[in-house]
Amino acid sequence: MSGTIRSVSVVWLLLLCLVLCRTLTGTGAAPICANAQAGCYAVSLANLFDRVVQHSARMHGISNDLHSEFEQYFLPSKNQVGRVGRNCHTSTILTPNGKENAQRMAREELTEVILKLLVAWRDPLWHFHRSMAHHHDFTNFSSDKALEMSDMVHELRKGVERVAEKMQTLGLMSDPVNSQVSPEALPPPDSGEWRRMKDYDLLYCFRRDSNKVKNYLKILKCRIVPEHGC
Amino acid sequence: MKKPSEAVLLLLLLFFAPHAKGTRFSPPGKPALTRCRSPEKETFTCWWEPGPDGGLTTTYALYYRKENSEAVYECPDYHTAGENSCFFNKNDTSIWVNYNITVVATNTLGSTFSDPVDIDVVYIVKPNPPEKLTVTVMEDKGWPFLRVSWEPPHKADTRSGWITLIYELRVKLEGEDDWEMHLAGQQKTFNIFSLRSGGTYHVQVRCKPDHGFWSEWSSTSYIKVPDYFHREKSAWILIMVFTAFIFLILTWLLHMNSHSLKHCILPPVPGPKIRGFDEKLLKNGKSEDIFSALVVSGFPPTMSSNCEDLLVEYLEVYVPDEHELMLEEGKDLHDHCLKSEGSTSDNDSGRGSCDSHTLLMDKCGEAKEQGRQTEQEERPVETQRHQKEWNEDTLPYAHEDTVSPDMSSGRVKTWPSVFCPLPQYSSSPPNHTSSLEIAKQHCLSDSLFPPGSTSSYLTHPGHSTKETLGPSRWEFSLSNKQPRSLHPQMQTRQQLQARSDINLSNVGCEQAPVGLLPPTARPTEYVEVQRVNEEDMVLLKPVASGRGCGDGCPRLRQAEDYSKVKGVNSDHTLLLQREVMGEEAERCPCQDQETNGETDSCITSSTVTTTQKPPACNYTAAAVQDKMAPTVSGYVDTASIFTLPTY
């Protein structure tokens, strides 16, 4: 009896090892470097862009879902949308409102806008998530979405920064973008303004801003690496 | 007549007057914005639904306000998009900006504002359908598939990444109603597999921005798939031929080995063999031949065999003094034999030879002994009859077979105790006495009683003085030496015996070597115990003798109740008591026959009715009764009754 148990346990251990090894080796956990260096896993710009674009698209999708959920359960009247839209705290950030404007904007500026937006939304989303967790009106699914949203904003910013670095290394962008993008250089978001926003307004504003980010990134991508999916 | 119609008309006019007057002018009704759409996220159009115009010409105006601005602008273009529409061109369109749009209907009486609608152009994008849909049939390893390709709508700028579209196409066979949907994603080509050869397909495609509305379906593209059967069919044909070939081979093999297979699967069942049974005869259809072959000679015995062959030899049993010897069985056998020939109506097979009247008649000299007897059997002596039997029958002497008597229920046969003249012993010419003795001896010896029977009717020759006179037994002692000094019963018996002897001697048995039978024989009647009544009395009934009886004999005999058994004494003998039913007189005439030996007359006289009573009989009867009642034990015989008064 003990022999069989031993053998079974050994087998299980082996299986576990195999799985772990596969996961470890398969996914390639080496950090991504802009430049192919030792210990880094070099990713092409196109690949980076694809990743970023997909990431932004996902982020927008989540925000859209949350917004529609909010609108469905908490705001029966549609007309409140107009009232809300003017109080987004990111309205100070100048963003191109049209295709020509966006295409006319330089890639560095565009990247900067993206980064600004992403930075601006990091704290409010985090607070939003925390407020959702406290409010038991929301379902767990919404709370998880909010958390995911805040995480994605954070990671998207990092990704975009990485892309910018890559572009700079490739000579596609000039340096001044980085300096402006640094979070310390950005004026701190109005600490009080977004707190006055209600949850619904916050969601509405973020939904729009995530759409902007997604669109801008796509434009960048198709401008810089147009060969895939443009 | 006219007046009511006029009144009706007036009423109608009055009723409809206000309506008939036509329009009541009013301010226009409230218009409503139905939808706003942007095909490429650069321009958009809004349509509204005009309300009731109120009877006057109504104008509509659309005003909008942008987000974070209080300036109100009017629609720049009312015509491009058609009636009741407002078209916003690129210059007027701002993406990610909230528009607050209102439509106003105005007529001379007033204006009505519609409900404001907030829109963001990003979320109202509905592109045009994809263009340049092409479908081609391609071949993949011999199997066809459709390659569908298309172009995005030309207005939608997907190249710059401004709009990201996802596509969807649908396919159906010609004539069917159900479409097969395929989501193609962002790619602009698609492959469709699993086609039906020879079918015509309809293909359509549409697109949608990642957050927006689906476009309309593109125009249908038709494609006909050519027939691709020949390739598959050849392979199928080959397979079929091969299978058929194998099947034929298997069938042939099975046929060849059918017998061995049969033996394996269904082993033959061994049939029965009958010696001498020829199946061919069966086939011939002659059953007689078959069965004759089956018939083993000698079995079963046919009816043609002599009855005598069936007779079993008697057992000659010498029974000591305690037992009474009776010989009946042999006679009974003969009786049976005779009966089998349909001579008698008595079917009691348990009879001994002595019992059977026919047998007695026929086989007077038989030396047969019975193996069994019942205690209750009583054997009246009927020498006369026996003599007759002896006279007429030659066969019984040769018989040695016996048929064991059996008791038929309810009927006890009385066995004559005398059938002494046995052929075995009678080889010498009749020396009457000696022969008688011998016969008696044999008879006595032959008679078998059950061991319990203590009837003392063992009279050996020379044992004349024996106390064999059991109360219930009647026996002829053929001894002629019987002293007359015996007690009355004995005397009676002796007399009887003497008489019987005489009778026996007188009987002329021509054939019987014994010659013991006197020609004149008193008719000895069998007494048949008819039944046992509830008082444990055996009711006897004289049995009509077969041959000795005359015409009227059986009739009368059966009518009378012969005697009653008073009881059974310790010697297991039945005490008979003749029931006086006024019929004793019948017997009386028979006493005369002792001397004359005319059986017939006796019998006939015995058939005399009760009224007829010979005078002597009365006394006789009385005497008989007196005598018989207490003391008589054994058979009650007519002879004895008749003889009694002769003291």
Automatic annotation (TrEMBL), chain A:
Kindly indicate where the leader peptide sits in this chain: 1-29
A GO molecular function term, named singly, is: hormone activity
- Any matching Pfam family: Hormone_1
**Which InterPro entries does the protein's record reference?**
4_helix_cytokine-like_core (IPR009079), Somatotropin/Prolactin (IPR001400), Somatotropin_CS (IPR018116)
* Keywords noted in UniProt: Disulfide bond, Hormone, Secreted, Signal
The biological process GO terms on file are: positive regulation of receptor signaling pathway via JAK-STAT; response to nutrient levels
Compartments, as annotated in UniProt: Secreted
Q: Which GO terms describe its cellular component?
A: extracellular space
Q: Does Disulfide bond appear among the keywords?
A: yes
The family note in this entry says: Belongs to the somatotropin/prolactin family.
Quote the protein name from its UniProt record: Prolactin-like
From the broadest rank down, the organism's phylogenetic lineage runs: Eukaryota, Metazoa, Chordata, Craniata, Vertebrata
Write the gene name. prl2
UniProtKB/TrEMBL annotation, chain B:
Record GO terms (molecular function)? cytokine receptor activity; metal ion binding
Is Repeat there in the keyword field? yes
| Transmembrane portions of the chain | 235-254
Query: By its UniProt entry, which CDD domains does this protein fall under?
Result: FN3
Q: Which residues form the signal peptide?
A: 1-22
Record's GO cellular component terms: external side of plasma membrane
**Does the UniProt entry include the keyword Hydrolase?**
no
Q: Where is this region: Disordered?
A: 368-409, 588-614
Domain Fibronectin type-III span(s) in chain numbering: 27-128, 129-228
Q: What is its main location?
A: membrane
Entry membrane topology: Single-pass type I membrane protein
Output compositional bias ranges, type Polar residues.
Answer: 592-613
Q: Where is the composition biased (Basic and acidic residues)?
A: 368-391
Q: Any idea which UniProt keywords this protein has?
A: Disulfide bond, Glycoprotein, Membrane, Metal-binding, Receptor, Repeat, Signal, Transmembrane, Transmembrane helix, Zinc
Q: Which family does it belong to?
A: Belongs to the type I cytokine receptor family. Type 1 subfamily.
Known PANTHER family for this protein?
Answer: CYTOKINE RECEPTOR (PTHR23037), FIBRONECTIN TYPE-III DOMAIN-CONTAINING PROTEIN (PTHR23037:SF35)
What is this protein's record name? Prolactin receptor
